[in-house]
Amino acid sequence: MMARATLSTSDARREAVIDAAIAEFAASGYHGTPISTVAARAGISPAYVFKLFPSKVDLFVAALDHCFELVEQSLATGARRAAVEDPETILDEMGSAYGELIADRRLLMLQVHAQSAADVPEIAAAMRRGLGRVTEFAKSRSNAPDEDVQRFIAFGQLCHLITTLDLDSQDDQWASLLARAIRHPAAPTRSPRE
């Protein structure tokens, strides 16, 4: 059995701050979340947050980078579940794994809020970097044609709409049309700030 790496105190606190930032930024967005709220959730002082992350935008970008790391890990998990090495099957399993990941809406809402704050150059760059990372992984791991990878990413964005607006539980015909054959695991019940 391999020994687990021991994190230094600052590394452990950095991870705790990033986790707290994901939760807080997912609830209130970049512009609406003060560092003091993230610090309180992480159980440290705002000054220590600024010691780890020199600015609010640095913290938001770190949270977003971590989000995309988790997305890529999720896609890798889905690809491993594929019964056959077929591009369509691999992309389907990746999509299912991503649906499971965003059942916890914090990562999803962080991405939504990042898009709404894309006027901040560092956030726009982080979104492009993360989307590029996910797209390149989906392409290289599935070996699917470009148009299938494009459709995969487009369906991911549609899943964001369906999940954030709870469209798969709406009776309107237009909502049913958009959500047809797309199902997501039920989100765990929690308060918005949990």
TrEMBL record:
Q: Which InterPro entries match?
A: Homeodomain-like_sf, HTH-type_TetR-like_transc_reg, HTH_TetR
**Superkingdom of origin organism:** Bacteria
Spell out the PROSITE patterns in the cross-references: HTH_TETR_2
For this protein, the DNA-binding region equals: 34-53
Q: Would the keyword DNA-binding be found if you checked this record's keyword annotation?
A: yes
A single GO molecular function term of this UniProt record:
transcription cis-regulatory region binding
Question: Where does the HTH tetR-type domain start and stop, copy by copy?
Answer: 11-71
The UniProt entry, under Gene3D superfamilies, shows: Tetracycline Repressor, domain 2
Q: Which UniProt keywords apply?
A: DNA-binding
Protein name listed in UniProt? HTH tetR-type domain-containing protein
Which organism does this record belong to? Nocardia macrotermitis
